């Protein structure tokens, strides 16, 4: 039996690059789609929030002199490109999918309406939330936390390049220690960068667990949903 009835999967835009330096690797979107399809077959309602860092990063652009709000809006549009790519991959895997955007663009996606999103989930469709919160200065991490609250998800599944939360970056610090479980306050106090502080605070206030795991291992989404020990869990 799945441990969660409804989940929100948070993917970084960089995850879609694979080993490329930019853009979208169809092999990666295909693998992610296959993993999501596996979870759907278990009867778990799945929503997805995806970043845009593989195409454009507003924060990086503002550091080079671009207006921050303009950069953030460009980043939001990048998430729509990623959402459409993932929708295509999911539909090739025979999973009915809807993209809902916080910035209206009716020719390619539905506008975000909370009740409509929940209805899609109840009908067994995967829902991809694009364009962040629709507001500059908020990350896609915060958008993921916000959407998870709105749809009453049981958990956020945060897919990353490493197999959990470490005391430091395990790539550059081989002696870094991995946490199996950690509290929201510890994440904030230690500055672990799992998600930004706004997203962590939002999850803490609403007691929403966050499961951090490695996306690159096929089947990990299913394992996380089934409650198997993959990665790290952030709880009270």
Provide a descriptive summary of the structure in words.
This protein is an alpha/beta fold. The protein has one domain (6-235): Carbamate kinase (3-Layer(aba) Sandwich). Helix content is 38%, strand content 19%. The protein contains 8 helices and 11 strands. It has helices spanning 26-41, 58-63, 68-92, 114-122, 140-150, 184-190, 197-205, 220-225; strands at 6-11, 45-50, 97-101, 110-111, 126-130, 155-160, 165-166, 178-179, 181-183, 210-214, 232-235. The strands form 2 sheets. The protein has a 9-stranded mixed β-sheet with strand order 4-3-5-2-1-6-10-11-9, sandwiched between helices. The chain has a two-stranded antiparallel sheet with strand order 7-8. Strand 1 (6-11), helix 1 (26-41) and strand 2 (45-50) form a beta-alpha-beta unit. Helix 6 runs antiparallel to helix 7. The model has no long low-confidence stretch (mean pLDDT 94).
In short:
Helices cover 38% and strands 19% of the residues. The protein has 236 residues and is of the alpha/beta class.
Radius of gyration: 17 Å
Q: How many domain units?
A: 1
In the CATH hierarchy, the third-tier topology is known as Carbamate kinase
The share of residues in extended strands comes to 15-25%
CATH superfamily descriptor: Acetylglutamate kinase-like
Approximately how much helix is present in the residues?
25-40%
Task: Encode the helix/strand succession as letters.
Answer: EHEHHEEHEHEEEEHHEHE
The CATH architecture category equals 3-Layer(aba) Sandwich
Strand order of the largest sheet: 4-3-5-2-1-6-10-11-9
Major beta sheet summary: 9 strands, mixed
Shape: globular
> Separation of termini?
24 Å
Number of helical stretches of at least 4 residues: 8
Q: On the 0-100 scale, what is the average pLDDT?
A: 94
**DSSP summary, beta strand count:** 11
The helix-and-strand class reads: alpha/beta
The residue ranges in which pLDDT falls below 50 over 5 or more consecutive positions are none
Kindly provide the name of the CATH class.
Alpha Beta
């Amino acid at each position: 039996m799945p441990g969660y009835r409804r989940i929100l999967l948070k993917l970084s835009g960089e995850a879609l690059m694979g080993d490329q330096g930019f853009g979208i690797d169809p092999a990666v979107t295909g693998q992610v789609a296959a993993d999501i399809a596996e979870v759907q077959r278990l009867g778990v309602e799945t929503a997805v929030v995806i970043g845009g860092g593989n195409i454009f990063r507003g924060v990086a652009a503002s550091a080079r002199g671009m207006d921050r709000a303009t950069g953030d809006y460009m980043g939001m549009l990048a998430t729509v490109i990623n959402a459409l790519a993932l929708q295509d991959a999911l539909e090739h895997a025979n999973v009915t999918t809807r993209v809902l955007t916080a910035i209206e663009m009716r020719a390619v996606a539905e506008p975000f309406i909370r009740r409509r999103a929940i209805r899609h989930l109840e009908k067994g469709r995967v829902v991809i939330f694009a364009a962040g919160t629709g507001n500059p200065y908020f990350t896609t991490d915060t958008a993921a936390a916000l959407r998870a609250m709105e749809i009453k998800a049981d958990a956020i599944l945060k897919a990353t390049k490493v197999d959990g939360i470490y005391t430091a970056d395990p790539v550059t610090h081989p002696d870094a220690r991995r946490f199996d479980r950690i509290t929201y306050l510890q994440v904030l106090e230690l500055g672990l960068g799992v998600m930004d502080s706004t997203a962590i605070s939002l999850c803490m206030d609403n007691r929403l667990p966050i499961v951090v795991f490695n996306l690159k291992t096929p089947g990990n989404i299913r394992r996380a949903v089934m409650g198997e020990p993959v990665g790290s869990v952030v709880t009270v």
